[in-house]
Amino acid sequence: MKLVFFEYQGKVRSGEVIGNDIIEMESVNKEPKGGSYDIRSVKILPVQTASIFCVLVNSYKMLGASSKQEGKEMLGTPKFFIKLPSIVVGNGDIVYAPKSGIRPEVEIGIIIKEKLRNINSGKIQDYILGYTVFNDVTAPGEASKDWYYARRRDPNDGVVKRMIVRGAHFRNKNRDTFAVLGSIITTPDEVKLDRLRMMSIYDNKVIQDSTTDEFIFSPEEIIRELSTILTIPQLSVITTGTVGYSGAEDTSEYKLEAKSTTMEVHVERIGSLVNPVKVI
């Protein structure tokens, strides 16, 4: 099943996509209520969410590890940051790049059906409404603006000294248009996140080309860990993290020239997002 949010006559609605028709639902995870719309006559919207929880790194190649096992040992548990729903844009919308540079990050967004907390691993699938494509747009050149100096204990020698501290992922991640979110939700009965190809393209050049086999933590492990920290609201988007970049020596620094061009992300069997880029 494929689900979608759309706007018709000024009202946000949801429904199931069947061919070129949308069968309206009372809400996105309820039974159809009968109304039918031609998909070409309505405005298709990004997934309507109030929470976006992103996994910071979930690829052993992005981490610089040699295997998933080493990656899991290095990370310990999934690490998270938040993107604000107010910066969400959809397919075809303009992405605004700072002059310091930009990069796409192809990811899968997991849509949560009902709110949950401290979920048992065996029940997690019951709470997954489906999957959509997500572009975690990033400006690596802006990250250092959130760094600062402080007197901290050096873990290498135990001495308190003036050290640089990396701040939160804010200026590099939370900028207007830096959360490109898909519109179509593909339900779990139609797709399994097993060896799905994931690609990103910038200025007509392939930047990322790998599969979900790179992931260190499974969706179930990610959701389980997040649910131990807080209550995950209904229709939250939880992203999987991205895959490695072609030829990047240090992925934390990897960035592309900001220019007026196009960026694309593609996830096999889930969807694609194509967005023009403009420099600000």
UniProtKB/TrEMBL annotation:
Q: Which residues form the Fumarylacetoacetase-like C-terminal domain?
A: 52-277
Q: Which GO terms describe its biological process?
A: small molecule metabolic process
Keywords for this protein: Isomerase, Metal-binding
Kindly give the InterPro entries that the UniProt entry links to this protein: FAH, Fumarylacetoacetase-like_C, Fumarylacetoacetase_C_sf
Q: GO MF annotations for this entry?
A: isomerase activity; metal ion binding
Superkingdom as given in the UniProt entry:
Archaea
Among PANTHER family, the record links this protein to: FUMARYLACETOACETATE HYDROLASE DOMAIN-CONTAINING PROTEIN 2A, FUMARYLACETOACETATE HYDROLASE DOMAIN-CONTAINING PROTEIN 2A-RELATED
Q: What family does this chain come from, according to its entry?
A: Belongs to the FAH family.
Q: What is this protein called?
A: 2-hydroxyhepta-2,4-diene-1,7-dioate isomerase
Source organism of the structure: Sulfolobus acidocaldarius
